[in-house]
Amino acid sequence: MRLVAGELRDYLSRFGSGLVGLSCLADGADTLFAEIVLEVGGALEVVVPAERYRDSLPTDHHAAYDALLARAQAVQRLPFVESTPEAHLAAGKLLVDSCDTLVAVWDGAPARGPGGTADIVAYAREHDRPVHVIWPPGASR
Description:
By secondary structure, the protein is α/β, with parallel strands linked by helices. The protein has 6 helices and 5 strands, in the order αβαβααβαβαβ. Helix 1 crosses helix 2 (29-39) and helix 5 (85-98) crosses helix 6 (117-126).
């Protein structure tokens, strides 16, 4: 996480206060991205994939999720009830459709299920959206 955080911070700090970062606030890289967006002076917008999305996240992540959600300048909620791969894929596509550049913390591996990082990167590339991959040397899952 330290290596990824450093590279994310270096990349995002280039954008200054005009930066708007979009995230679903999942535990891990999504949350790290959101935290660094705010740290470098950017604004945060959140996409909530489903009504029960928070419930599907690890319990120990709820406080961080709630704190970041409270700091979001905008929140878009998708019409799904359950937090399913279909909801996650729809949220990822919405992020791509709404961004100028997709920043993906990705090891290049295939998606572990529908809506995973590989699927979202592929969707972005299919729609000619620039993709900036963050995976520094020495990083591992």
